[in-house]
């Protein structure tokens, strides 16, 4: 009985080692794939800059105002870290309401 248990323990340890090797291989492959995706994004961005320069030679794409940490939201250039798109949209709506209210007050005062 003890021999059978020891044999089974040995088999399980071998299975564990096999699974561990497969896991380590999968993790390495995943890291390689992540790096490939990142590199493809970088290459695509650079291609876009090259095309922008080709079609609009008067635009200097090395200008410091080009900032990959900014995005266009409602026609305005905003930093990504100002919040996600929903937060930025809510902020823009609130600002628009304030402007509308101020315009109404100004209109009422003018009358």
Automatic annotation (TrEMBL):
Highest taxon listed in the record's lineage: Eukaryota
Record field: compositional bias (Basic and acidic residues): 90-111
Coiled coil: 2-36
Annotated spans, Disordered: 81-111
Keyword Coiled coil among record annotations: yes
Alphabetized UniProt keyword annotations: Coiled coil
Record-given protein name: Uncharacterized protein
UniProt source species: Vigna unguiculata
């Amino acid at each position: 009985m003890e021999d059978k248990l020891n044999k089974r323990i040995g088999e399980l340890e071998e299975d564990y080692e096999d699974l561990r090797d497969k896991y380590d291989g999968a993790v390495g492959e995943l890291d390689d794939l992540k790096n490939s995706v990142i590199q493809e994004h970088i290459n695509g961005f650079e291609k876009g800059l090259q095309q922008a320069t080709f079609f609009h030679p008067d635009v200097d794409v090395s200008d410091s105002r080009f900032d990959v940490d900014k995005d266009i939201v409602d026609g305005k250039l905003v930093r990504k870290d100002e919040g996600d798109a929903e937060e930025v949209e809510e902020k823009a709506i609130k600002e628009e309401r304030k402007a509308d209210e101020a315009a109404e007050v100004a209109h009422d005062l003018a009358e």
